[in-house]
Design a protein that fits this description.
Pfam families: RVT_3
Largest sheet: 5 strands, mixed
CATH class: Alpha Beta
CATH architecture: 2-Layer Sandwich
Number of domains: 1
InterPro entries: RNaseH-like_sf (IPR012337), RNaseH_domain (IPR002156), RNaseH_sf (IPR036397)
Strand order of the largest sheet: 3-2-1-4-5
Helix content: 40-55%
Number of strands: 5
Strand content: 25-35%
Shape: globular
Radius of gyration: 21 Å
Protein name: RNase H type-1 domain-containing protein
Structural class: alpha/beta
Order of helices and strands: HEEEHEHHEH
GO molecular function: nucleic acid binding; RNA-DNA hybrid ribonuclease activity
Length: 171
């Protein structure tokens, strides 16, 4: 009997527990991750967004959003890029994750909007938000948003390449 107890105890303390995802009020099949970046702030800016279905990437996009934009402007553009696709795909319930605490807290109503140049983007996002049956916002750390970050930075590289080609034609 004592030997069996030792085996059981050893088993539980040496084997890692398996994490089983909980389904319920806070679980979502669809997750949107977004990001934006600006080199210079303000400067050239890019946005990226990724949609996941049950943790599997199903869509992504990136966009160059301007030559003299702030990081917060680019973050909102990333959010809009993803929300637009989610609505286009008729997704009704969505968890939105981003590493911009400002954007997440403004969308949750925890921070006031103070920047005039963000107002049109914010109002567009709030308008889109109303078209979902359920939407929640969650701030995540940068290391958990690497794919959207990669896309936002790639949008800048795309524009650099276009600029390089254009300057080559002017010579």
């Amino acid at each position: 009997m004592m030997q069996n107890m030792q085996k059981i105890t050893r088993y539980f303390f040496t084997n890692s527990p398996k994490i089983i995802p909980a389904y319920g009020e806070n679980s979502f099949e669809y997750v949107l991750k977004f990001d934006g970046c600006s080199k210079g702030n303000p400067g050239p800016a890019g946005a990226g967004a990724v949609l996941y279905y049950n943790d599997r990437e199903i869509w992504y996009n990136r966009k160059f959003v301007g030559r003299k934009e702030t990081n917060n402007y680019a973050e909102y553009c990333g959010l809009l890029l993803g929300l637009n696709e989610a609505l286009r795909e008729n997704i009704r319930e969505l968890k939105v994750c981003g590493d911009s605490q400002l954007v997440i807290k403004q969308m949750k109503g925890e921070y006031k909007l103070k920047s005039e140049n963000l107002y049109p983007l914010y109002t567009e996002a709030k308008s889109m938000e109303k078209q979902f049956d359920k939407i929640v916002y969650e701030h995540i750390y940068r290391q958990y948003n690497s794919r959207a970050d990669e896309l936002a930075n790639a949008a800048l590289e795309d524009q650099d390449f276009v600029d390089e080609i254009k300057s080559g034609f002017k010579s």
